[in-house]
Amino acid sequence: MQPNEWMKLDNQLCFAFYACSREILKLYRPLLSPFGLTYTQYITLLVLWEQDGITVKELGAKLFLDSGTLTPLLKKIEAMELITRTRDKTDERNVIIELTDQGRTLQEKMAEIPLKLYENTKVAEKDIVAMREHIGAFLHKISEATSGQD
């Protein structure tokens, strides 16, 4: 590609990810609104449904969110009575996030959301899986390149 071609918006990988992310979030909105959840709250719960009782630091690492973003998010989810936040008795610097019974029950109620989302895209499951794997590998390479740049 010629140097001047790199400066076109349509040739920017970051813009393709940005635009795609915005469109995917539009698809999530009507699926999550009956539960009163935002997308970020939803992905937080997804992590906890996989691994309950993790620290804020572990949760932030999984979600690529810093504590300044995570703390108000967790306060809102706690106010919804879906999680609890408690100081670790062995190391008070750590805050442990745990699902409440209501938070665990919500998983069953929301189980169809990923399928409904994929149905709305009209993209074949194999293509979604392949795309997710490619993006995951790309994210891993970017994370390695940017580690220590905070």
Automatic annotation (TrEMBL):
Transmembrane segments: none annotated. The keyword Cytoplasm applies. Keywords: Cytoplasm, DNA-binding, Transcription, Transcription regulation. Residues 10-144 form the HTH marR-type domain. It is found in: Cytoplasm. Its main location: cytoplasm. Pfam families: Staph_reg_Sar_Rot. PANTHER family: ORGANIC HYDROPEROXIDE RESISTANCE TRANSCRIPTIONAL REGULATOR (PTHR33164:SF5), TRANSCRIPTIONAL REGULATOR, MARR FAMILY (PTHR33164). This is MarR family winged helix-turn-helix transcriptional regulator. The keyword Transcription applies. InterPro entries: HTH_MarR-typ, MarR/SlyA-like, Transc_reg_Sar_Rot_HTH, WH-like_DNA-bd_sf, WH_DNA-bd_sf.
